[in-house]
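Propose amino acids for all 110 sites.
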């Protein structure tokens, strides 16, 4: 009985931890952009991003937006390959935002 309860608790913990990752994979491109922009803004406001870090992250964000606009202009929409390419670039930017916000550099002591 105790093993069954422990297994149920472990399964619940795994499923709740995996839910945000699965939910993120189903976000539209516009939702992902809004989320990344919000995370950069929050990092600037709470001091977890230095000004140079925020400038670099925003420049990368704008480059991805420019690429998305170029993809949309050339084919009348996004092909599957273009969508995957943008997703990959958003994933990389998201990882960089996460790293920069947690690297213990803040605007007071960098």
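Proposal:
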């Amino acid at each position: 009985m105790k093993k069954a309860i422990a297994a149920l608790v472990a399964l619940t913990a795994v499923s709740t931890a995996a839910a945000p990752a699965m939910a993120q994979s189903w976000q539209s491109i516009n939702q992902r952009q809004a989320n990344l922009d919000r995370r950069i803004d929050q990092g600037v406001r709470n001091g977890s991003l230095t000004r140079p870090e925020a400038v670099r992250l925003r420049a990368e964000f704008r480059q991805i937006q420019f690429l998305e606009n170029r993809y949309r202009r050339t084919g009348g929409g996004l092909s599957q390959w273009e969508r995957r390419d943008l997703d990959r670039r958003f994933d990389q930017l998201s990882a960089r935002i996460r790293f920069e916000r947690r690297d213990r550099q803040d605007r007071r002591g960098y």
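Confidence is low (pLDDT under 50) at residues 14-24. The radius of gyration is 18 Å.
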